[in-house]
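Progress report, Aim 2. The chain analyzed during this reporting quarter is listed below.
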Amino acid sequence: MGNPEGLRALEEQRLGPVLRRRDQVQPGTTDQRLLDTEGDSEWVHTDPWRVMRIQSEFVEGFGALAELPSAISVFGSARTGPGTPEYDTGVRIGKALVDAGFAVITGGGPGAMEAANKGAREAEGISVGLGIELPFEQGLNPHVDIGVNFRYFFVRKTMFVKYAQGFVVLPGGLGTLDELFEALTLVQTRKVTRFPIVLFGTEYWSGLVDWLQNTVVAQGKASAHDLLLFHVTDDVEEAVAMVTKETGH
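Predicted structure tokens for the chain:
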């Protein structure tokens, strides 16, 4: 079973499903590299190892959320301060969603996310926070009952859509817009079905809606039908009624 000295160099090497030839052949074997205790720790930053981390995040997320009842994801600015009208609206929306039979999912951070989690908790519902590793934010807000922290945005985004039956989007910044347009794209391309999207705050969202209608649709970059993929309202009860009606909840 040994490898006698003087054996000519391999021209072809198979490492699991990977084929290497000529100067891409690596010395040693996969087992040998696994069991070798020498060497640095740079391997934990390689792409194959990241794949395992990504897989583990999906597994943890699926495991934590698989038994959730019907849920709505609520988005909004992390910069919304307690005591402001927008924060109070977030609390009311969280409560109203729970009263309608939904769990509430947010990004788990401060601001509007915290407000919706607070409302859900005060209504004795299920309050979920899906956090993200960022250099400038500090963990999950105290109103989260089920929390999962993610390294990767795309894994977190999957959880927002997979375990929610709709989105309620409060005024927010780039992160909120990112989630909004991803959801709109998924509905437009029919990757998800029966997925209501409610924009809360007509004054805040009117400029975006005007731009979509008068520039994007007008120049043929989207169809007029795409404007029906979302609803805009200033009324908490109407927002909840919209997601309830479209989800058949």
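The CA atoms of residues 13 and 19 lie 6 Å apart. The helical segments are 30-35, 47-65, 85-99, 112-122, 153-162, 174-188, 202-217, 236-247. These observations will guide the mutagenesis work planned for the next reporting period.
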